[in-house]
Amino acid sequence: MAKELKLTIGWFYPDLMNTYGDYGNVAVLETRAIWAGIEVEVRAIDAGSQLEKDKHVDLMFMGGAQDRQQASVSQDLVSNKGSLLKDLIEADVPGLFICGAYQLLGNSYIAADSSSIDGLKIFDIETKSPSATTPRLIGDIVIKSDLSPESIVGFENHGGRTILGNRAKPFGHVLSGQGNNGTDGTEGTIYRRSIGSYLHGPILPINPKIADWLITKALETKYGQPISLTFPDDTIEAMIRQKIISKKRA
Ligand code: GLN
Q1: Which member of 43, 111, 117, 160 has the lowest number of beta carbons within 10 Å of its beta carbon?
Q2: In what order do the strands lie in the sheet with 108-110?
Q3: Where are the beta strands (DSSP E) in the chain?
Q4: How far is the CA of 30 from the centre of ligand 1 (A)?
């Protein structure tokens, strides 16, 4: 069955939203889908291109950036691609939105210079960066999420502190590290089949089960039926996660 399946990954703003090696997430989505026997196309959707309704995207990814890039991407999102992106999320097309991208899908983002950057209001979250002299939240992070029986490991580096609104469900709970704001123990958010998270790393190479979940859900949404795929073993990734977890405990 997998042979006839085709997956189009929409990679939003590959030039502007790509700090801390977040492109590695796209590489993992593409590779694991190919290993599961799926035909894959990766479409770069940058500031100059349109997100046409007829050119379907089955799975979305957007990485992190600093405030300056976020401000220009916000303009393009709010005036151009935002409503289609929202439609895709509401239609259960899965997405992974890391750090700056996560912030931009929220209600608003107050940058470190106090300027307000418009969000798409898809995730019910508010983010505020404290002054440039307040420490950033940086370091290894371990979380527990309903999406994975195993702990999820990543690396965070953000100034913004995010507060979940009443409608927002966390992506996970912090076992060690800072998460959304360093105080309430939540990390990221999950809405329908889309994940917002502060976990760089990038997150997917070291937590391939999240990639497998995104790929499977993307195909289930596209083909409207349960999909069962065989993904490669991830024992080595589990060993690396364990090493990071024990290092945090030491
Ligand atoms: N500019 C944001 C912050 O520092 C996002 C940083 C990032 O994407 N790594 O909060």
Answers
A1: 43
A2: 116-118, 108-110, 125-128, 161-164
A3: 6-12, 39-45, 59-62, 95-98, 108-110, 116-118, 125-128, 137-144, 152-158, 161-164, 172-176, 186-187, 189-191, 194-197
A4: 25
The mean per-residue pLDDT over the stretch 9-20 comes to 93
Give pLDDT tens digits for 208-222: 999 999 999 999 999
Locus of tokens 């006839």 = 4
Å from CA of 195 to ligand 1 middle: 16
Q: How far apart are the first and last CA of the chain?
A: 46
pLDDT at residue 3 above 60? Answer: no
149: enclosing H helix or E strand:
none
Residue 133 has pLDDT above 90, yes or no: no
Q: Which residues pair with 63 in a beta bridge?
A: none
- Contact by Cβ (8 Å): 39, 7: yes
Mean residue pLDDT across the chain:
94
What is the structure's pLDDT at 52? Answer: 72
- Number of Cβ within 10 Å of residue 151's Cβ equals 17
Judge whether 22 and 98 are in contact, CB under 8 Å. Answer: yes
User: Tokens at residue 7, please?
Assistant: 């997956």
Instruction: Provide the annotated active-site residues.
Output: 99, 200
Single pTM value for the model: 0.96
Q: Is 188 in the pocket of ligand 1 (CB under 6 A)?
A: no
Contact 122, 88 (CB under 8 A): no
62 has pLDDT over 80:
yes
